[in-house]
Each structure stands twice: as C-alpha cells, then as structure tokens.
Specification:
There is one protein chain. This protein has 2 helices and 2 strands; from the N terminus they run ββαα. By secondary structure, it is mainly α. The chain has a domain of 59 residues. Strands 1-2 form a two-stranded antiparallel sheet.
C-alpha cells in the first residue's frame, strides 16, 4: 500500500512515487507537494531532515494494515453448574415450631 502525504504549505494530499524519486531523478518530498517543493528550492529553503523523517514515519503507520488485537480468552467465565445454596437446608428457627 502506498503512502499518501499532505503538503505542509497548502494542505493538499498528494501521492509521490514509492521510492520518493521522480522519473527525472529529482527527489520527492514527504513535506511539500511538487509546486511548493519547486518554490522552496527557488527560495533556497531545504527540507528539514527531522520533519521529513517524521512525515515518512506517520505515512508508513497510516499505510500499514491495522494490527489485529487478540481477544481475551473468555473474560466472563461462568461455572458449568449452579452454585450451591442453603435454601433447602433448615436454618435454626426457620422451620415450624411445635409450640402453638
């Protein structure tokens, strides 16, 4: 899957070549679209290496398929038989009294 970049100057999304090198041998920029890259080159402004590396990393993370999260093994485990209760047992003072 190819990375889509966003120009930091104009905000458009663009799709540079996979190797970040154009057909004429000039490097593509992960920060600027083609128009702004040529404008920056004319002004003598070079691409900051740290910002370019960050843009590449962010684009690779967006392009990577999402990691499958493992489901927890039965988070709500219930017993296979009902719990024992004392309902059937006679509690002291709970039965019929012989005194009337």
């Amino acid at each position: 899957m190819r990375a889509v970049f966003q120009c930091t100057e104009c905000g458009i999304h663009y799709l540079p070549p996979e190797g970040l090198v154009y057909g004429d041998g000039s490097p593509a920029s992960p920060l600027w679209c083609t128009e702004h890259q040529s404008v920056m080159r004319e002004r003598g402004i070079s691409e900051p290496p740290s910002a370019a590396a960050l843009a590449l990393l962010a684009a690779r993370r967006r392009a990577a398929p999402p990691a499958l999260e493992e489901e927890p093994a039965r988070p709500d485990v219930r017993p296979s038989r009902p719990a024992r209760t004392r309902r059937g047992a006679k509690a002291p003072g709970g039965g019929r009294s012989k005194l009337r």
